[in-house]
Predict the 3D structure of the following.
Amino acid sequence: MNKAINLFSPFLEYIRKEKAASVILGINVILALIIANTPLASYYYGILETKIGITISDKTYLTHDILHWINDGLMAIFFFVVGLELKREIIGGELSSPRQALLPIGAAIGGMIVPAIIYALFNAGSETSHGWGIPMATDIAFALGVLHLAGNKIPAAAKVFLAALAIVDDLGAVLVIALFYTSEISTQSLFFGLGCALLMFGCNKLGVRSILVYAILGIGGVWLAFMTSGVHPTIAAVIAAFTIPSDSLIKEDSFISKIKNSLNKFQGIDPRGESPSLKPEQIHLMEQMKNDTNAATPPLQRLEHALHPLVSLFILPLFALANAGVSLDIDVVHLLSTGVVPGVFFGLLIGKLVGVVGASYLLKGLNLAVIPRGVDFKGMVGLGFLAAIGFTMSLFITTLAFTHPEHVDQAKIGIFLASILGGIIGYMMLKGSIGRR
């Protein structure tokens, strides 16, 4: 039992963090929609279109509007954290065991293929066919947030399954972006970026544990080179994440011994009476314990722990605020002039459900995987509907798939409708599944 708790605890801690993130994310989506439908809309779009660049000797470099910097700059940090999470789970988490990983991987693949097919059926041969990647994505923050709202009686295995599915789904989105949503490629910049990534990998193998070294090579080398190569810079972020060391300089037993030794020495120092200040020897021991703690914590987990609040509470909400704004003053006939809305809507709402649940029970029928403990068929259907929540990732792929404002707005409407309905239906089914136990 304790082993099971220890296995689930990283995921459960992750889910608790996502609850607050999903609330803030939702507030920013609503705020963007309100602003885009008021007289403030002109200021909203004006700010996002403001150009920012670097000027050196009267020459300007990397000049892009604020929206571009948010989507290609700040979102690269989000994908970097996704890469760190993926590496951690592959090395020693839910994705480390083939049998353990097969269910969320299979469910995620099914939940990507079926939505893409449904979108293609509505848009085959049209100018909007390139948007097939939009309904493939699941928004992990919103999905886990709604799951958390469904109650504490939700089985831990269900929460772990959905989190693992969403992480694999993120990896799928990264691969789709890399293979199908890149512009013309500058091989010189691309090879330079890959060379910097190899240098980061070499530093890892040589035992370099300085986060500053990886930051300089990752940002100044890999990300910057990909930014100018034509390959989306979010790919650079994931590649860089996989080069970050995942082992520690001090093993657990040695760390415990060092900390105990320092604490014993600390306790053996006579206090300064009523003085609130510490003696120099105590300060030295505290610094030593801090250094030992850093040495015992893998750089990968240090970075993940440090960046997760920044991503969840600032970057993703800012992305939502910048991208969720769409005018609702749209003629229905005009809205349905292409297959984007039905393709995205049914792709997310029906495609995700059929893909996730269908693949899960297919694997179960083949005796290749087991359904999460404590989850019945109704509960799995509820989880399938939660996977239809595609806000952040679907909006992100929309910015890559379309350049025509009309198609962008149509995709956003389809995303909003499917995500809201998926969240509500999933919540109700999971609550009903709990009530019958």
Observations:
- Residues 1-8 have pLDDT under 50 and may be disordered.
